[in-house]
Each structure stands twice: as structure tokens, then as C-alpha cells.
Amino acid sequence: MKIRKAYIIGILIIIVALGLKFFVLQKPDTRLLYTAQKETFLETIQVSGIYHKTATDTEKATTYATYQSALSALVTARQNKDAADATMWLKRQTVIDAENGVNYKNDNTTNPATKEDYTTLEKLSIDSKLVQAEKDFRSTETKYKEANISIVAAQAQVSLAKIAHEDALENEPLLTVFVNEVYAPKVSLGQKVNITFDALKDVVFSGKIVYIDSVGTVTSGVTTFEAKIEIIDLLTEIKPNMTAIATIELIRKENTIAVPISAIVYQDGKAYVQKASSDDGALTPVELGEKGFAKVEIVSGLDSKTAVLVRPNSKSL
Fold first, then answer.
1. Is the pTM of the predicted complex or chain greater than 0.85?
2. Backbone dihedral angles phi then psi of residue 208, each to the nearest 5 degrees
3. pLDDT in tens, 134-153
4. Are residues 113 and 180 in the same domain?
5. Which residues have C-beta within 8 Å of that of residue 119, sequence separation ≥ 6?
6. Tell me, what CATH number does 231's domain have?
7. What domain range includes position 6?
8. First-to-final CA distance of the chain
9. Nearest residue to 308 (alpha-carbon basis) of 261, 268, 255, 266
């Protein structure tokens, strides 16, 4: 009996030792993991802006007058071009007449006006007329080209004045923000925006994108796109030229699986993830959907509650 009891105790000691080895003394999993699950795939950016009120009647009248002035300048520029064009061709005809005079003088010795041989002074005068005619033509040609430049500049002023006047006619107060070119492709009309004013930080206003520039503005080497945000249920405490922070929703997809971008492995143009349970480093093919700046949607290939390596170190890579 004593031998049997000692045998049992020995087996128990071995079992406990093995348990300590595998469960207590086992090193923790230090790999960076992410558990995929159904969630709201949401990505936002924050940009600062300035609130502009609806223009007064005086401001509207001023912008309209500026617009009309720009239109008048454009008409004048076009008229100047037509005048320069007519003058240029008159000068061109003068050059042709002078060239004919030089050619006649070179081919004949008798001056048709005096019926006598050309004097040296008469020959010099004929040559001088051609030189002067060519100078006059080049001068008018330059003015004609400058008239085209003036028209382009006048058209640009008309466009700017028109935009300014249309802005003044807006019926709703707008928040103007400037979006960096990195994020601009993902900003579109109708996107939801949350706004917090510096003067009223405890209140979050809702809004939406109602305008975004199609051409960016470069300032100190940085390209930004102007966007305008319509604010809903604006309080009277908010005054013109107050600053605010706008949180723009770039992506919102409900009930979808998304993983960090760094969890995606690309091989031969296909996308893969490495499951945490894959001890041999095998990769699992996945189909990607919406791509954000931090996460990417998994359309198929990965089940919910599956842990994947955020920075895969697969043996197959």
C-alpha cells in the first residue's frame, strides 16, 4: 500500500510540474494582435474653420458692383483687342507698301515722282520708311498679344467676383474650412460633420458639406481645398468670424469587419492576413472593401472574433 501511495504521489508531482511548465511558466504571447469583429467602420478628420454669417444688403450690393465692374473691364479688354487687331493689319499694309517702294527703287533708277534718277537721300528715305514701318508693325503686334493677356486676366477677375457675389447671396450661415490634399479625395458633398466652436465647447453642432473646391490653393508649398459646411440648429450665441473645429466623417459603414492596414499582407497583387492561430505562418486570403487611413474593410475571408497579427512575420513572406 505504501508503495502504491508513493507511486500515486509521484504521478501527481509530475502532473503538477508539467502544469507549471505549460501554464504558469509559459511565456505570454507578446505578438501584437487585433481581434476582428463586426463594428462601425468610422474614420474622421478634424479641420479648423471660421464661421461666416449671411451677408448684409450692403455687402451684397458691394459684391454685385464689383462683379459688374469686372464684366465692364472684360468688355473693354475685348474692345481693345479688336482695336489692336485692326491697327496691326493697317501697320502690316504699311510694311507691304514700304517693301514695294524698296523693291521698285532697287529695280529702277528713275524716281517715278520726280522723273529723275534717285538721289542718295531719296534712297535712304525709302529704306528708312521700311525700317520704321516694320517697327510700328511689331509694336502693334505686341499690343495685340498683350490684349489677349488682358482678356484672360479680366475673365479671371469676373470669375472671382462672381464667386464672391454668389457667396454673399447664400441663404444659410456657413463654416469655411480648408482640407489638406491628402484627405480631399475622400471629402464629398453631403458628408456629415460635427462642429465645436471654441467659444461654446460644450455644445456639438451637426452639419454637412455643401461645397468643396475643385481646384486646390497652394500656400507655402501646402495644397488645401476650401470646403463650406452648413450648420444645423445654430444658436444665437454663435457670432460671425468665430472659430470652430469640424470633425468630418470620411467613412462610416455599419456592421462590418475592419482591421488595421498594417495587418494586410500583399503578395502577387492579392491581399492576405495572418491569423494568430497560424503557428506555421500560413496566410489567409481576404477580399478588401473600403480603405481608410488607419483601417481597411474585410469583405470576405475573415470571420468575426478572429485574432490576426497586426504586423505579420510570416515564414512564407
1. no
2. -150, 155
3. 998 898 888 888 888 888 89
4. no
5. 111
6. 2.40.30.170
7. 1-28
8. 59
9. 261
Q: Are 50 and 197 contained in the same domain?
A: yes
Taking the CB of residue 67, how many other CB atoms lie within 10 A of it?
21
Contact of 218 with 165, CB cutoff 8 Å? no
Same domain, 127 and 100: yes
What tens digit of pLDDT does each residue of 89-145 get? 898 999 998 999 899 889 998 888 888 888 989 889 988 998 998 998 898 888 888
Query: Residue 214: which of 246, 194, 188, 249 has the closest Cα?
Result: 188
Structural domains of the chain, count: 3
Give the burial string for 94-133 (b: 16+ CB within 10 Å, else e): bbeebeebeeebeeeeebeeeeeebeeeeeeebeebbeeb
